[in-house]
Amino acid sequence: MTNCPDPDNLGRMVREISAGGVVVRRSGAAWEVAIIEPRKEPSTTDTKGKRKSQKVTLALPKGLVDPGEKPDQTALREVFEETGVKAVLMSKLIDIKYVYVRSWGDGERVFKIVSFYLFKYDSGEIDNIESEMRLEVNRAFWTPLDEASRKLAYRGERDAVRRAMEFLENHPEV
Question: Using CA atoms in the order 174, 124, 71, 142, what is the torsion angle rounded to 10 degrees?
Fold first, then answer.
């Protein structure tokens, strides 16, 4: 992934707009965050016929903004679909912009913007998701917020978690 898109090439690239959530809840004196393990393609084999091991990827719930939907609504929908929990919007955290090359289909370069929002847990049971979502999400679980930035696979998502921590430190009334 390239983190600094070349403005001259953006007009020729496909664009994707996504949104996601950093959902937090209190657990004693500490905060926890809801994260997911996205389902991966089946493992492949190497040239000797041995299965290649796949590293577990952990991420925040997120997805494409549907037509007519606002990014914060998308984030709330994705949080529920991918984790099984309902949450209340607290604040916008960050817009992450990057370029990637599709590994499927046309192999086209895509300029992507992902907006992350901070949510406070309201209700629901983590990992209680619809069976059709199991095609996308292997599992969802709570993890300590102060450990999440070491566990998440993507730098932009680690940045979103750090911003969430700063928000919570600056708003003790939450």
Answer: 70
